[in-house]
Design brief:
Length: 158
């Protein structure tokens, strides 16, 4: 596994983790009948996922230092571990107050999931590298997560 590539993944996770942390703030408790989380449940879940992402940075750095790049199962497991919180975050059902923010978060998480899947494929076949696609996905992920955080802050202010 290429160290430069792993550093890029590490940077992507740090940026995403910091952006997600912006969401866990604010107000009331409003549960609709559409299966959405209450505001309190939503913010608690976002905080939980943010903490997971924050801890993942340390865990990933430790694993990157010890993982055998020829052990495909270990490499695949690492990519899936990195991807899991983004999958979970994208699947959250936000209360009405946070629907617009969650739509952006979901879009950003889906771009990050595609980035991780593309990076995983790249780790197996470096010749398949499409640096433009990776950069585009990472940019979309970061932009959408930051926009989602802004929308969440605006919702909290209401």
């Amino acid at each position: 596994m290429n160290k430069k590539f792993l550093k890029l993944m590490s940077l992507a996770l740090v940026v995403m983790m910091m952006s997600v942390a912006l969401v866990a703030c604010g107000g009331g408790d409003d549960k609709g009948n559409d299966g959405a989380l209450t505001e309190e449940e939503y913010k608690a879940k976002v905080q939980e996922i943010s903490t997971t992402m924050s801890n993942m940075q340390t865990t990933m750095n430790e694993k990157m230092a010890t993982i055998d790049p020829t052990d495909e199962k270990a490499v695949d497991a690492l990519f899936e571990e990195i991807k899991a919180p983004f999958v979970e975050f994208a699947a959250l059902k936000a209360p009405a107050k946070y629907e617009a923010a969650q739509a952006k978060f979901k879009s950003g998480c889906e771009a990050m999931i595609e980035f991780i899947d593309t990076a995983k494929a790249l780790s197996k076949d470096p010749a398949s590298a499409d640096a433009n696609k990776l950069q585009e996905l990472l940019t979309t992920a970061m932009t959408d997560i930051v926009e989602g955080a802004t929308l969440a802050e605006q919702a909290d202010a209401k």
